[in-house]
Amino acid sequence: MTPPVRILGKASSINVRKVLWTCEEAGIAHEREDYGSGFAPTDTPDFLALNPNGLVPVVRIGEAVLWESNTICRCLAGLAGRDDLLPRDPLARARVEMWMDWQATELNPSWRHAFLGLVRRDPAFANPAQIAAGARAWNAKMAILDAQLARTGAYAAGPDFTLADVVLGVSVNRWLMTPIERPALPAVAAYVERLDARPGFRAHGRNGIP
Is the pTM of this model over 0.85? Predict the structure, then answer.
């Protein structure tokens, strides 16, 4: 039986939504408390003792404390014994983790300027030329995903849904909901429709929050 899972983080956070979607896919019961902008602060000594970065989500699993959303998702899938979400075979697992890591290290940084400038209205990211450059970089990364989905004909790591699609699904939703000019990416469009058949994506991915 999975130990009690307590999620600290507001439900609108893209990284909290990954964890919530993973819980739904894996059938993991959990409790969530609102932390982050507009809610309980993350810069207090108590919170920083849990995550020195001062970011959500933080997850308590029994007495253990975890941060970094993709790592949390991996742990939850393992605790639930969901080898379909994260295979045990080293090569099959690496294909899933490769796209999870790409989401974190390549795709996410590409949207930073456009998203913060256009959606968050952060004055530090208001330069139109930098927003336009950011949108181009973001679209270029999405074209890489489109090519991969065209190759598999289904999901990021192959024919079956995995954790890679949880973390990519919330990022694809952000791309679709940010007011930038987007190229036609037919494999991504078909991918979103496949994801939309999953209740977890509808609740935590395509839920009206970028």
Answer: yes
Overall fold of domain 5-79: Glutaredoxin (3.40.30)
Q: Phi/psi at 33 (nearest 5 deg)?
A: -125, 140
CATH says 90-202 is which class?
mainly alpha
Residue corresponding to tokens 């974190």? 104
Alpha helices in the chain (DSSP H): 14-26, 45-50, 69-79, 90-102, 108-118, 128-152, 163-177, 186-195, 199-204
For 25, the token pair is: 């896919």
Residue 193: pLDDT over 70? yes
**Rg of the chain taking only CA atoms, in angstroms:** 17
The amino acid at residue 5 is V
- Classify residue 107 by burial, with Cβ atoms within 10 Å: 0-12, 13-18, 19+: buried
Give CA–CA dist 136/127, Å, rounded: 14
Predicted confidence (pLDDT) per residue in 120-131, tens digit? 999 999 999 999
Tell me which amino acid residue 47 is. F
Maximal CA-CA distance, the chain: 52
